[in-house]
Amino acid sequence: MNDQADIQERQEEAGFWQRYWFAVLAAVMIVAIAGVVGYQYWQSKQIPVMKPINDFTLEHLDGSPFHFQDTAGKVRLVTFIYTQCPDVCPQTSKNMEYLQEKLKQENLFGDKVVFLSVTFDPEHDTPEVLRNYAEKFSYDPTGWIFLRGEEQTVFDVAKQFGVGIMKQPDGLYVHTMRTFLIDGEGNMRRAYGMADEMDIDKIMADMEQLAD
């Protein structure tokens, strides 16, 4: 009796696998694929570290020293500009004005995210000139910091970001058109375009992610 029961049980078990092996295999494959897709989605949302940015010192509009490390722990959006720029720089600053308001709506501006706009034309861009430029874009100094310094000092800082700057005979500049996203630990995470090449929604999403 016991032998017959065992045989019947094994036959029923074999029959189960014969009938449902495909369904079980399909379920296993679905779980495996879901895991791969989930990992790929998670990986796609990660913002890679491009390079570390070393500390540097420039000047606030009032002449007091600014140290990059003063903003450690905050996400930083960094641009290199000059006030005589006819197009790219003012368009970029206008985009940042929009981002400033968006960040304020989410209570991120100033506390978790700051903007750094650095002029590389200190001869023309005196503190007064630079302040007047900033005011055109309704800058809030609690989170949008305009900076200047000796020309060579600024060029050295720009070089660290990978920005090339060349002054033309007419007084205008040719420069690398990039906007940089730096995380709270001082790592460059993104290099965006400037002006029309700025993907505002993408920049906003990246800042939110790093500020979280």
How far apart lie the N and C ends? 67 Å
- Give the spatial strand order of the biggest sheet: 1-10-9-4-5-6
Which percent range fits the helix content? 40-55%
Largest sheet: 6 strands, mixed
Q: Which series of helices and strands comes N to C?
A: HEEEEHEHEHEEEEH
Q: And the CATH topology of the largest domain?
A: Glutaredoxin
Indicate the low-confidence ranges by residue numbers. Answer: 36-44
Fraction of residues in β-strands: 15-25%
Q: Give average pLDDT, whole number.
A: 88
The total number of structural domains is 2
Helix and strand composition category: alpha+beta
CATH architecture annotation name of the largest domain:
3-Layer(aba) Sandwich
CATH homologous superfamily label of the largest domain: Glutaredoxin
| Individual helix count | 5
Task: Give a written overview of the molecule.
With 212 residues, the protein is an alpha+beta fold. It has two domains: 1-46; 51-211, Glutaredoxin (3-Layer(aba) Sandwich). The protein has helices at residues 2-45, 88-105, 127-136, 151-161, 200-211; strands at 51-52, 57-59, 65-67, 75-81, 113-119, 144-147, 165-167, 173-175, 179-182, 187-192. The strands form three sheets. It has a six-stranded mixed beta sheet, sandwiched between helices. A two-stranded antiparallel ribbon has the order 2-3. Strands 7-8 form a two-stranded antiparallel ribbon. Helix 2 (88-105) links the parallel strand 4 (75-81) and strand 5 (113-119). The termini are far apart. The relative contact order is 0.16. Mean pLDDT is 88; it is low at 36-44. Residues 47-212 form the Thioredoxin domain.
